[in-house]
Specification:
The protein is mostly beta strands and 94 residues long. It contains 1 helix and 6 strands; from the N terminus they run E-H-E-E-E-E-E.
């Protein structure tokens, strides 16, 4: 079973960031989902599998790789909400 980790995009290992940019060359905006953390706070995020880890990647306004170079669409078409609940996710902010 793969380990599950919650991490802010800016705190991901470089190789994971590179894999995300290869898989999503036009940006990850369409892959993002609105979620609620255990404290009831909303955030945008996506899951991404890399080697033996499934990351729940949290994105904030200061995340470096949100939109691809050609994205000039300011609309947020993603209004799904997914409750991440108390699954076996480990939050790592280092």
């Amino acid at each position: 079973m793969k380990r599950r980790v919650i991490k802010e995009y800016n705190n991901l290992p470089v190789e994971v960031k590179q894999a995300i940019s290869v898989d999503f060359p036009e940006g990850i905006e369409d892959a993002l989902t609105s979620m609620i953390d255990i404290k009831g706070k909303y955030f945008q995020g996506m899951t991404f599998e890399f080697e033996d880890v499934i990351y729940l990647v949290k994105y904030t306004d200061d995340s470096k790789f949100l939109y691809g170079e050609d994205d000039d669409d300011d609309e947020d078409d993603n209004d799904d909400t997914e409750d991440v609940g108390e699954e076996a996710w480990i939050e790592e902010d280092y």
